[in-house]
Structure formats: C-alpha cells, structure tokens
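Re-run with default settings, no changes from the original entry. Doing this only to confirm the output is reproducible before filing.
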Amino acid sequence: MKEWILQYDLLSDDSKRKLDEQLKTLDLNEIESVYDDVYVNKQAFDTSNVTEVPYVTKDELNVEALKSLANSSINDGKVAVLLMAGGQGTRLGYDGPKGTFKFDDVSLFELQARQISKYNNVHWYIMTSDINHDETLKFFEENNYFNLKRENIHFFKQEHFPSLSKDGKLLLTKNEEVMITPNGNGGIFNALKTSGMLDDMKSRGIEAVFMNNVDNVVVKVLDEILVGLHLKEDNEVTSKSITPKENESVGRLALVDGKKGVIEYTEIPEGEDSSFKNANIGIHVFSVDFLERAANTKMPYHLALKNLEFLDGNLNLVKEEALKFEKFYFDVFYIAEKHNTLQVDRAGEFSPLKNREGQDSVETARRDLESINLI
C-alpha cells in the first residue's frame, strides 16, 4: 500500500479499512499511466501544424432565416441546453456553487433560466460536481426551479480523478480519504453517457444541444443564430468565437494538423499571439450523434499545478503545490467531420466571472450586465 499512500502505516485501522475500500474503486493502472504520460514524460505541444480556423460572421448570413429555423426547432423540443456548473465561487470570495452567485438578487442560474423560459419545451441538463451537487439542487428547489417545468431540468455529476503528489503518491484529505477532484470539462461527454442523460436526450427526440458555462454572465442561451447555423449546415459542432485581445488568457479555435481543435493560450508560440483570431468562449452546439461518438472517444489528460490542502507524510495538514489532471472537451473536436465557427462581437456575448476584483471580476460582470439591461 505504501506504493500509493505514503502515510498508510501511520493511519488507524479504521482509516486503513476505509482507504482499502476506496482504492478498490480506483483504476490504479490508469492513474499510473496518466502520471507517467502527463507529468514524468510530458511532451511539448507541437505548434508547427497549427493554423487559423475557418469562420463566418453574421454579416455573411441570412440571420432572419436562421432565427426562424432555430425558433421552430427549439419550440418543437429538438434542441436542449447543456450547462457546465460544477464549480464553487471560491475565487469570488463566495461560499457556494458559482451559479448561485447573485447580482441584485438575481443569480447566474436565474439569468440563464429566464432565457430558456421564452420557449415551450426545452430540456436543461446541468452538470454539477461532488462539491456542489446537493447545494445546487437545494437552490433550484428553494427558487421553484425559476418557474421552469421541474421535469425538464436534469442534474448529473461531473467525473473525477485523483490528485497526486509530484512523486506520484495519492494525496489524503484531512478526513484521511483519497483526494478526488473534478476531472475537467472534458469529462462531460462520458458523464452524459454514464449518468443516462445521453439516452434521455435520445428518447426525447433531441437532435442538437447548446452548451455553455455558468460563469459567462451575458451568454445568449440558445442563441438562435448559432443554433440556426448549426441546423442549416447539419453540423456536428458549431462554435461561437470572439476576436481575442492582445495576450488574452483564452484558448484559440484553430486547425491542428488540419483538424478542428483549440490551442491553449499557454501553448501559443511567443510572438504569434496575433496569428489566431478566434478566441474560444465555451459556447458550442453539438449534434446528439456527435455527443455519443465523443463519449466513446478516449481523451487525453492535461496537467494543472494547483495549491491543494492535504496531509503530509506526518499527517499534518498542509497546503502545497500538487498535480491535478484534467480533460478538455475540445480535445474531441478532431472527430467532427462538419464543424463551423461563428465569430461575434464581444459586447453582449462574453463576460466571464472569475475573480473578486480586477479582470473578469464582479465589477466587470456587473458593468456588462447593466450595459444590456439584464440587471
């Protein structure tokens, strides 16, 4: 057991029994493989075959025709909404699920629910996590599901993966349990499948799914131009982008070896920032068939160095840098044969709420909400 848990011999018999049971649920071979591939033998990202992604703008489209097509399909129940809402408001100095954060007594969840309520029969699939699932459900109950049909709202949990020390040991929480953390937004496809949500979508005749993050406060949920473009072209993936600011910390939609993908801002070669004109803002429409293929596609893990709170070798609680492994949903874009990108203006489309102060903060989010009269 010491191969995996440094402090095992120091633990009580009761803690050892609990850990033994927990370890039976983990794929230790996969954990070892991820550690070796992503950390020990980490490979630099090859940017030699990365080029700008093709895209269109609204000026090139018959906007009214696309809106009409989308509106009809949405009201017929053929388009669903998929929300990524597994995070906490820690960086906001807020204790609770990020979606429950409020501006003038209006939560982020309510801002999105209001837009969904404009249509007749939209099903809303919300991905939570172990850290906020119960609180999120309670919040929806307390707010009467924002006057949406209870049976049209479906909650499922994000998948998880163990964090490790830099020498490859499992970390223990203050409760002497193996530390398991969310495995990144890329786990959403398999989570849809294993939770039964993908089968639920198919059983309802849903054909397309609009996906977005909970923390873009001005997101246009079910944007009819994006949805209409997706339906008209019979795409597998249709993405929304904006022109990035200079050196902006946001990934860029790009072609990697001729296939659609996203190059992270940390991987852009120095001096080539201006070469990529389409910032990924986490808004996409997927065909349900694509979601099913994505759920059956093996996706790589990426390394994130995080300051985590865990027990050291002497069972003292410390907060130190450790290894967190995450999947990114856009790593599966390469399997899409039909993928288009719609570039839009930033104003009224993208205002992420990440920090308490400064850039992408409560102040900037409030300003942007007020500018388009959402609060």
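The first helix runs from residue 13 to 24. The chain is about 25% helix and 25% strand.
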